[in-house]
Amino acid sequence: MNTDPHFFSRRAFLGRSAQGLGAVALGSLLGREAAGKPLPFPGVLSNLHFPQKAKRVIWLTMAGGPSHLETFDPKPKLAEMHGQPMPESFTKGQQLAQLQGQKLTCFGPQHPFAKFGKNQTEICALFPKLGSVLDEICLIRSMTTDAINHDPAHMFMNTGSQIAGRPSMGAWVTYGLGSESSNLPGFVVLTSLGKGGQNQPIAARQWSSGFLPSRYQGVQLRSKGDPVLYLSTPKGVSNSQQEADVQTIAALNRHHDALAHDPEIATRIAQYEMAFQMQASVPELMDLSKEGAASLELYGCQPGDGSFASNCLLARRLAERGVRFIQLYHKDWDHHGGVKEGIELKAQEIDQACMALLTDLKQRGMLEDTLVVWAGEFGRTPMSQGGSGRDHHNKAMSVWLAGGGIRGGLVYGSTDELGYAAVENVCTVHDLHATMLHQLGIRHDAFSVKFQGLDAKLTGVEGANVLKKILT
Amino acid sequence: MKSAPQLLPVLAFLLSHATADAERTVLFNRDVRPILSDNCFYCHGPDASHRKGKLRLDIREEALRKEAFVPGAPEKSALIERIHTSDKDDVMPPPDSHKSLTPNQKETLRLWISQGAQYQLHWSYEAPAKASIPQGTHPVDALVQQRLREVGLKQAPEADRRTLIRRLFLDLIGLPPSAAETAAFVSDSRPEAYSELVDRLLSNPHYGERMAQGWLDVVRFADTIGYHSDNPRNIYPYRDWVIQSFNSNKRFDRFTLEQVAGDLMPDASDETRVGSAFNRLILSTEEGGAQAKDYEQRMLTDRVRAIGAAWLGQTTGCAQCHDHKFDPFTTRDFYSLGAFFADIKEPIIGRREDGMLVLDPAQKTRFEELTTKRDRLQAEFRSPRPDLEPEMKAWETEALVAASFKDLWTPAPLSTPAASKGNLNLRLDAQILRASVDARRTARNQSDGTETVSVTFTLPETPVTAFRIEALREKSPAIGLGSNGNFVVSELSISKGKAPALSLSRTTATFEQPGFPATAATDGIADQKNNGWGVLGGTGADQALVLQPTQPLHEPGAKYTLKLHFLFGENHGIANLRISTTGEQSPPAAPKTSSPSPEITTLLKVPAEKRTAQQKQKLEAAFRDVAQSLTDLRSRLGSAEKDLADFSAAAPKCLVSISAPAPRTVRILPRGNWMDDSGEAVRAALPSYLPKTGFENRDLTRLDLARWLVDRQNPLTARTVTNRLWRQLFGTGLSKVLDDLGAQGELPLNQPLLDWLACEFMDSGWDYKHMVRTIVTSSTYRQSSVPSAEQTSADPYNRELARQSAFRLDAELVRDSALAISGLLSPTIGGQSAKPYQPEGYWENLNFPRREYPADSGENQYRRGLYTWWQRSFLHPSLLAFDAPSREECCAERNRSNIPQQALVLLNDPSYVEAARAFATQVLEKAPEPERLRWAWQRALQREPSQEEIKTITPVLERHRAMYRENPAAAAEFLSVGQAPIPKNVDPGELAAWTHVARILLNLHETITRS
């Protein structure tokens, strides 16, 4: 199904170009610099609804469900009540995951909090480096979600729906805005494992294009093997041989087009060209050895280590190269047990890297038009699970945003005194999506595609609010 | 029901006519409903909860009651006034809806009201009308040409013969024709040559595979459960059932019944039950913390959506939370439809059951043989044996000794159990080490069935003169984990820390299987399968091994480790293990009989004459488990049980529908919230807005649902199915949105044609092959797909059918085509899903458990694409690149994208590199120079290369030749991709260079396009 009329006209355009100019000219057409010129892959939104504050998004997914109580939401009262029964007024009739039907006991924060930034905002003391750039960050302590199991919760966070088959936010954004990169995909996904062994599975549907055309799907860049699947030329085939074959395929396809008059043929030729360019551009992108020692030191990573820190550095390189939506998954936040040690490990893995990403983007003048989002798929219970951990929880979670027209140094919303439920400025995943789209210049409720009889939107059918108060 | 509208006289008025024409007749379904549905029904439609101003415009009487318009008098109509006003508060649609009407749409509404504001039932809810066809004309052509005359387009000429045979092959069996078949067809000028070819292809066994592909999408067939861990389940026999159903031309009504209610049919059989696996194709989860109610709801909604997508062409998903906004499908309809499936027996959370054995006749015979043998031995074992009475008496005495023997021993506390391979799962339970076979590793062929178990135990305060290792039955079926209840201790050792193992002076056992003596467990030989202590024949009773160390030990609290090697394989480990020690001065050997259980010991102490019948029975059973005279019978029984269990474990199995006597209660969930129990409980019921005479006033079952789906009065099913078939044969459905024939779908441009097909389908007795034959023998189907400039501008998307369409092959067929051209393709139909090469680490994000992807070897590496292992969360990436759906949801229509990943797959995926090499090998072996290029073109494209093409390819071939002449190592490397053998008598450089030519041909747009 292709419901997108622009898709056809673009194909037709490319078709004419290809026939008129020949493949070499087409190659240079695709390779054109982005600044001020038409995008290599334009989006469907020719006129944006709002002034565009953010040109691209870097979304840091902390997969597994980070505990807000050991990261960004200080709860002294919970510490006081540690070991006491959880007051029933909080939990009666509520949706829990593994704790459903069990005795509920308060479980105090496992790490101290400390004050950072000009507003002396309290965050967990395990994140001092992030604390050092807290003035760039808007912390939302009142996020909620609909789902409490990993898979549906990721789906909800990524697609605004718990039903498989919807486009992910990266696909929506690339579909709407196109991409500035001619030789990299518009939507790129990187994953990294944590050392704690709680690495929940992540399905490829999380970066699927759903019912949107497949070219908007996220392309995973892998740290081991081919960074993009099937990227490497077969062994025994040199680069120039590959190029010769690609050119011959194009030439034969053009001969065929003279008889078949099929606009798909021109697109096919262009896609082979793009694929061939990716064979060079992706390895170049992935090669962190070209980064200076200072850069590697800032992030705290080694080339090829596959770490979250490396991925943050790659995210910056992708952003520089015009990629529209960059999503990082860092796993191992599922602390049903051992949340104390688990969070320590996670802090080691992400604290410096997140700081480095924001610092680096800022130094390069890119933070102002790059929206960075840090979020898990849900929060965790203030009640103990098994005496050392916390269960999944959807009534309260902390997320943060930075750059891209977001007010730094702000804390938005709050949870109740035990961190059980968001109570002030309660926001939803749809609100977060709406706000992101707003910063990209898109009106969330006017950005839809007909699917199964509905005007399907990233922000769903229930309605959503742009979080105006967190915008500059 | 209103009668079907006669659209034919007015079809001349095109939707695209932009000018307002006072003369034109406005039709509600064609002209007005789309405007109202898009712009008004959201607030003034079927969904009561969203309705504004209590006005609904989808029902004429309601609209009139609220005075929305005055028929015949647009100037007096509120509707017209509201759409034209400039008052922001009054204008419709309101500004905050982000909807607006074009002047043409406003004019259409005005005309409609001036012509009387007549309504029609939504087109697809009216019964299809079968147009009468002029004698001697092909019905499809008659209806298409009628439409073409009206819109002023001319039919394209017939495609050339080579295109026709290629088109037919790809459409009907999904494989390209051979050069010879093409040549024969091209030169066969007999008028019946075409229809004969069609008949030949319809009876080709690959026809079923080709047709199955689309059905497997729409019912979301996959090998894995979908959610979270996305683990495998047994389901592939259903895929084969679909293939066979198409091949045998099972009538579509029967096909439907077997899927929805194959278990409930009066003539239910294994075959119909496999069909009923349809109900099990849903997603499920094994995630810890998943809530049953949550997933019960997910499963219900999944099933309702599937019925909507596969049969009704209705989008039902939104009615999970609210009444459909555009169609009359209500939340009550949704849950009532879901209630049909509430009887299906299944775990809501967790691993699926193994499913039903699906056996072919030979397997069935074998299964019956094995069962009979087991039953016969069992009967023999249980038959009265008065001759054994003396032996039993003797046993009673021995058993009491053995029971007192028990008192000598003190169980040792156990700690840190470990299974080195993970093939067994271990659990400490007080002083017993319990083991079970890791079902997942076994299911995935990751377990070799062997294991080494170690466990640490603590020595008592008192001296130790002997150890006893017991294998206890407890609640297990037997004391061993093998399918016959046996275990084999290949070797064991007891040691402290890293010190050498204790030397043992004596090893005895309560029971020894012939050929598997106790001493074999301590003979230092650990690497021979048949060397160890086994207990077949004694697996029903507790058995023990007594080990006497050369030197007594006295090390209170010291930790020793017992290591047991179970290397026989087939999971021959001990189910429940206990270690005890004794300090007896001269430790006894193991008694000749196993220690009786406490219950039996008690019974033994009851004087014979005072025992009740039941007690006697129990004693007798205990005796038979250990009786010396029955050892041989017991081992034969054990073997028979093992053979049966092994056979069943390896046999194909399939999840099927089983109806539970007490169905789950289904409630309407307010706003779809599964936490909310306040909704009304509903019974199974058919959608309220569709005709259903004969289904009233009784409790309905899945069988009723199935019968109604293919009931003549159901206006949707036949349209939905033929519309999908049309898409397969022309590239686009007659109604474009395949999964929605409802208000938000598309009124077919040629409704008489779709309706004729639907009626013909039903009239033919739901004969699918008849429908395929009817369509492909039309001249409409046989047209050329090359568009003229005029056609491109008048009808860019080819909706009017004045030509055929060219479109890329589906993902599976891209693969099949390359394999067929290369000669590698396996012709096998059906069987286990196959695992073609896949990039290493592609499954790295799967967990619980982590998984390897072992690519298949041999023939299975070259199976058709539809047999590819369908891992929902990580579908094989080369299929995914060509838009194969993950099948997490029903998919009526695939994308047809054109993306760089496709180029990467065709250029670099080892499957395609290997296919190119095999193709090149054929070129070199089968064609002498200078025929090679011609032969290659014929093979891949069934046509001659043009001079231009030869001029383009020749220098490239030369260049690669030169390159490999200089660098033979590169040639060898290139040729080493894939498992297919490299021919010995071919010059590697030449083969490598030709592999490039082959590769270029496999990458051509034309090769992967059906035109």
Mind explaining what this structure looks like?
The complex is a heterodimer of chains A (472) and B (1011). Chain A is built from 12 helices and 18 strands. By secondary structure, chain A is an alpha/beta fold. Chain A folds into 2 domains: 53-223 and 305-470, Alkaline Phosphatase, subunit A (3-Layer(aba) Sandwich); 231-292. In chain A, the strands form 6 sheets. Chain A has an 8-stranded mixed β-sheet, with helices on both faces. With 1011 residues, chain B is an alpha+beta fold. Among the domains of chain B are: 8-121, no CATH class; 386-631, no CATH class; 809-854 and 890-1011, no CATH class. In chain B, strands 2, 4, 5, 7, 10, 12 and 14 form a 7-stranded antiparallel β-sheet that branches. A 4-stranded antiparallel β-sheet of chain B has the order 3-6-13-9, with no helix packed on it. In chain B, α1 packs across α5, α23 (717-730) packs across α25 and α30 crosses α34. The longest helix of chain B is centred in the middle third of the chain and has 22 residues, at 361-382. The radius of gyration of chain B is 37 Å and the shape is globular. The model of chain B is unreliable at 1-22 (pLDDT under 50). At the A-B interface, α5, α7 and α8 of A face β18, α28, α29, α32 and α33 of B.
Would you kindly provide a brief summary of this structure?
The complex is a heterodimer of chains A (472) and B (1011). Helix content of chain A is 34%, strand content 17%. Chain A is of the alpha/beta class and 472 residues long.
User: Helical amount among residues of chain A, as a percent range?
Assistant: 25-40%
Binned strand content of chain A: 15-25%
Largest sheet of chain A: 8 strands, mixed
Radius of gyration of chain A: 23 Å
**CA(first)-CA(last) distance of chain B:** 43 Å
Query: Structural class, judged by helices and strands of chain A?
Result: alpha/beta
CATH class of the largest domain in chain A: Alpha Beta
Terminal-residue CA separation of chain A: 40 Å
Summarize the biggest pleated sheet of chain B: 7 strands, antiparallel
